[in-house]
Amino acid sequence: MPTVSVKRDLLFQALGRSYTDEEFNDLCFEFGLELDEVTSEKDIISKEKGEGKAEGASETVLYKIDVPANRYDLLCLEGLVRGLQVFKERINLPRYEKIIPAKGEGQKMIITEETVKIRPYAVAAVLRNITFTKERYDSFIDLQEKLHQNICRRRALVAIGTHDLDTISGPFTFTAKAPSEIKFKPLNQSQEYTASQIMDLYRTDSHLRHYLHLIENKPRYPVIFDSKGVVLSMPPIINGDHSKISLKTRNVFIECTGTDMTKAKIVLDIIVAMFSEYCEKQFTVEAVEVVYPNGKTHICPELAYRKEKVKPELINKKLGISETPSSLAKLLTRMCLSSHVTGNGNNIEVEIPPTRADVIHACDIIEDAAIAYGYNNIQMVIPKTYTIANQLPLNKLAELLRLDLAAAGFTEALTFALCSTEDIADKLGMDISATNAVRIANPKTAEFQVARTTLLPGLLKTIAANRKMPLPLKLFEISDIVVKDPTKDVGARNYRHLCAIYYNKSPGFEIIHGLLDRVMQLLEVPPNEENGYTIKATEGKEDTDTVYCRGCFGAQIFPYSLRRTFCCR
Amino acid sequence: MSPSVAELLLQRLERTPPGPDGGLCSLEAAAALGLDHQTLVGAVKSLQALGEKLPGAQVGFSKAMANKWLRLDKGAPGGPRIFRAVDAVQDVVQSSLQQVQEGNGGSLSERERTDLKRRKLLLEVTLKSYWIRKGSAFSTAVVRQETDLTPEMIATGSWRKLPFKAYNFSALGLPPTCGHLHPLLKVRSQLRQIFLEMGFTEMPTDNFVESSFWNFDALFQPQQHPARDQHDTFFLHDPAEAPELPASYMARVKKVHSQGGYGSQGYKYEWKVEEARKNLLRTHTTSASARALYHLARQGKFTPVKYFSIDRVFRNESLDATHLAEFHQVEGVVADRGLTLGHLMGTLQQFFTKLGISKLRFKPAYNPYTEPSMEVFSYHEGLKKWVEVGNSGVFRPELLLPMGLPENVSVIAWGLSLERPTMIKYGINNIRELVGHRVNLQMIYDNPLCRLDA
């Protein structure tokens, strides 16, 4: 869940009133946000780096607010304030407008053929006559970072570049060139580097090194030039220093390049919708013409308003409320979905603004109605349908056996289903290929290499961790193991195993043997060859003098010098 | 017993005539005695070693050297030799010992005594004696108190007259030897019970390995969703891919993801079957619910159901005191016609009340597969704040309709972890003390009953 941190006083100023922490927490709760932490820059630094480093840092109170992962319009102070103000009916929802410049006067971005194999899509827009302040500027940069981390999937799907339009001149070209052919001064650097040098330069950069792999092994790197050959940026890594935006920037050229067109459009819409607030003509955006290699042009940003019709009775029926169509329309309008009743009250027409890309189905509209209505105002009802409960036969049996194993004086353990290959193979004198184990591709530690094929290692490890306990230790576990099985749809299956272990100064093989007999007795399996179970010595390999018994349950008994155990499945 | 080689050699040496050359050649002697020369050399060495020592001088040698009564010449021909260094000695030790013998041991100084004790010349013995007087219950007859009742006492009736020892009731009794159930699984049993009491049927969850299709795609979770990243999910190396996916259902899922349908805009991205085939360790049991609902949809005529499951799920997370790579998820699902958000809340209220949690509050939340979604908060008396106890919602139409469930059927569901309520209930701060092999067995031994309604 993304966290947005905003200065409290600035937030209250923007909201036009102040709240106690508790009041604001309640407001967040109601709206589906979470006031995660009340802190300050000083607190954060002293927590992370120690008391000493925090001196001099700002003591301005910060609110860290958790925002739902699908609400990209709430990732900055501007969006949060707008959302909450509309929710509380203190302002009307602004309407975002796209201004299309007269022919030949607007900005243009041309995409060349070379981009197809690496980053095929791009969209762009211009924010005219914007007034930045320190706070607005920081928020603008922060929003880009938040979007990069969330919807853009760490720049893999979309990368955003913002430029001071007055330092560059269109038309712009988005192309891809060999690394050696790209040379420019990257953001905040004092000299020019070639693209390959830039990659080396940022290999150790704590922030940028995470993006290098996106283009690193490609023969060509994406790059955006202006008409004079100035490099605007090398997406998705770094912008040029030349077109850097600052507090004084008046006109911002925004480009978003990526591999997912839908997401690039959403990202551009969000940025321009959020910050057009600070343009001279509030909430307007100047369009940019993007020309694709096939000659087709696309006027950006899209800023599409979509209209949907929802039946009022559907909302009432899905939520379990009974509101009039007009009050439902009012609820939706409070959620930035400007709505009105149409016809003779049979329909509500809902307008979905470009900032609400999360609304893709009627159910999303219904949820917004519920949030505006207040979840906690909905009457609780118990479903009337009568159903007969059934246990899963396997679990029912396992529950019964657990009780009787405890009654036999054994203690239940709960071990991990993941372990190292050693645990299930080498340490039991087996080869891993003989275990038929399921192997994990990306284990963080050696403890997560495989799913267990037997419960025995976990029980032995439990004993190892409890050597201070008085002897004997008698443990059992009834749980699942996993093995490959090509006949299953996923290629693997679980088996329910019962495993018990006896640990004492003397092996006590007869005790574990007796437990097996007891289990068979509980399961009504008689000790005979015809319809019951028998224990047969097998031709033991060197160290594992393994004994098998087969009845309706197969079982293995592993005698070791100090530990006698058996697994039964 | 035959004489040893050394003895034979000595006897031979005795018979040798005296003189300046008086002696034996070892080679000749060995030949004469019919022995291997090396054996004879061994005997010579052992006799030599005897000569180095001063028999009987163990007790006083080092003291005599310390007092400079003796002189040691290490460089003397034929090995070290000891010579007399004084004409007369005054032996203090002897006179001290004589004093002790005469019964005047007490006159020795502490230092002398410890010195003699160390040299094992003196042994100190403590002698305890008692002073005996009549007590309050003095009697000339001696009676022993009995500790336990025996079968003989009962048979003969002698117990009536016998005095018995008092029991110590302030001590703990002997704990019975017994087996124990694991606390987390005790809570699991109770939760199963709650579901069964509420008329919920148990879903099969017997597959830790799941395909991305059932774990994500079927739940309308887009393929670029952060949860599908390597660092959040355990993907499998072997078997890396699911051999079998339901073809026609999968085609409907693909369409709703990439192009929309069923009233939805979809996510408008390129849906890839390779991504759906990727096997993983299930990240939630909602995948099992998806399978159960798909199974239900394929039965032809729809019948309302209530399902539950409690089983293990896996997350590729960094481990700490509150997070593990594997934990248990509890899930409840109700599918019926005309279910509302109010029904979800009512069901949750009933469920949590049975768990002993009645003060509930619902917060809007986001889940990719439910809409509306709500987090359930409960007021925690100990922490004095509202804490999240569960997550819930109404399954999205994009999830249900491609399965083939009728349009008027709604499915409400909720989930929570088994570990969290257990940790709160038993006051456990570190999850690793509860789950896994590092568990403290004493904690399991001492764990009380799990009574959730208390």
List key phrases describing it.
heterodimer, A: 569 residues, alpha+beta, Phenylalanyl-tRNA Synthetase, Chain B, domain 1, Phenylalanyl-tRNA Synthetase, Chain B, domain 3, 4 domains, 11-stranded mixed sheet, 15 helices, globular, B: 454 residues, BirA Bifunctional Protein, domain 2, 7-stranded mixed sheet, two-stranded antiparallel sheet, 12 strands, 32% helix, 17% strand, Phe-tRNA-ligase_IIc_bsu (chain A), metal-binding (chain A), magnesium (chain A)
Overview of the molecule:
The complex is a heterodimer of chains A (569) and B (454). In chain A, strand 24 and strand 25 (492-503) form a beta hairpin. In chain A, strands 4, 5, 6, 7, 8, 11, 12, 13, 14, 15 and 16 form an eleven-stranded mixed beta sheet that branches. A seven-stranded mixed beta sheet of chain A has the order 20-24-25-29-28-27-26, with helices on both faces. With 569 residues, chain A is of the alpha+beta class. Chain A has four domains: 3-88, Phenylalanyl-tRNA Synthetase, Chain B, domain 1 (2-Layer Sandwich), CATH 3.30.56; 97-300, 3-Layer(bba) Sandwich (Phenylalanyl-tRNA Synthetase, Chain B, domain 3), CATH 3.50.40; 306-375, Phenylalanyl-tRNA Synthetase, Chain B, domain 1; 393-567, Bira Bifunctional Protein, Domain 2 (BirA Bifunctional Protein, domain 2). Chain A is globular and about 95 Å long. Chain B is α+β, with helices and mostly antiparallel strands. Chain B has a domain at 183-207 and 284-446: BirA Bifunctional Protein, domain 2. Chain B is 32% helix and 17% strand. In chain B, helix 2 crosses helix 3 (37-52). At the A-B interface, helix 8, helix 10, helix 11, strand 20 and strand 22 of A face helix 8, strand 3, strand 4, strand 5 and strand 7 of B.
